[in-house]
Amino acid sequence: MDISIIIPVYNEENNLNVLFKELKSCIGFLRKEYEIIFINDGSIDNSAVILDEISRSDKNVKVIHFDNNYGQTAAIDAGLRYAKGDYILSMDADLQYKTEDAVNVFLNLKDYDAVFCSRVGRQKADGFIKAVSSKIAYYVRNKILRENFSDICSLRGFRRDCLRNITLYKNFEVFIPSLIKMAGFRIKEIKINSYPRKFGRSKYNIRNRLWKGLIALFVVKWMRNERLAYRIKKITEG
Hints:
- Helix 6 runs parallel beside helix 8 (206-226).
- Helices cover 40% and strands 19% of the residues.
- The protein is α/β, with parallel strands linked by helices.
- A seven-stranded mixed β-sheet has the order 3-2-1-4-6-5-7, with helices on both faces.
- It is built from eight helices and seven strands, in the order βαβαβαβαβααβαβα.
């Protein structure tokens, strides 16, 4: 398997068929063996039915159904565990960026271990408050972790090897770039355009991210500061 595409889904019934058709067309252009893994994160709309219909129509599609809503990080983790591809892409189901950008992410993995996308035009897509709060959050994050990431979104790609020793916890999904960077892998950040939602609404807001995100931020800082780092000068055997 060349490419695995992981897509968490929570109440996205109006987006799924559009997303699948666009994504299949773009990925088919690459002429690679691929699989698309949808993770139904306990949706309470018609998403589960639509996903099963898509799966029955295409042998390259797999659907993982959670018995409850466990959150985006859990969905990403489940997708990573079941993915078989040498290259792994992950993206949201909200259609807030073009599926063609997924192809660009894959092509950039030729020279890097992980590629992350930062959004341009988010204020127009998500509104002033969300855009500004995100800028503030990344400013604080970069200061504390001594990093230089922009407004990274859910579209990203990895070589399988750089994920082998990554363990995710609740609210750690946004810190995947930091964890991979800590492990010494090569990272690239590329710019993509952000678009307003056509259907549905965001499941994440400032209130349900702020405090948990701050706690996770300081946990990642502790992990980076306290991780074992040493070099062996030589080994002498009798």
